[in-house]
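Board work, copied verbatim: Threonine efflux protein
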Amino acid sequence: MSFEHVILFNLTLLAAILSPGPALVMAIRTTLSAGRRAGIAMGFGLGLMAAVWTAAALLGLETVFAAFPWAYWAAKTVGAAYLIWIAIQMWRGARTPIQTDLRPAGRAFRGGVLLQAVNPKSALFAAAVLIVIFPPGLSAIDKGLIVMNHFAVEIAFYTGLSMLLSTQAAQRRYMAAKLYLDRGAAVVMGALGLRLVLGR
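↓ predict structure ↓
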């Protein structure tokens, strides 16, 4: 494994993080509605579980899903149900006023872990990226470094995002447009849930 492999992995990872998905939607919404501390905690939860999925991919979870398709189907179904449940809660609560720092950091962290945990496609994505970018025969040390690097990239991104969005101006704009932003986010989350369960 070379430094160039790590750079390419990080660029691919950042592109994946920036693509519209449940993790990015929830990180943005949590920061705008509950503040910087909760947004960073949500990012730590998302990053931790994403790194766990990468570790699982390095240990061959994709092979398990291929050998037992029902396990992947079950994981997708649970994940889709959770995303749709979040979407319903967002839609129903769109008109409810939110006070700053409503969500404790610990709760946001657990929400990030759970949200990422119910997305088995993260493991398959990680497996595909790892196979394409890194050479075969990685040592245990190399695998450990890849996982720690993944976690560091996720944390850096979500911390930076929370710092950027936690300004008073950003929060005022969110509060003014809360109904439309929350219902828009609900539609996105619901669509992602349906895509997860209906897609191959």
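Residues 3-80+100-169 form one domain.
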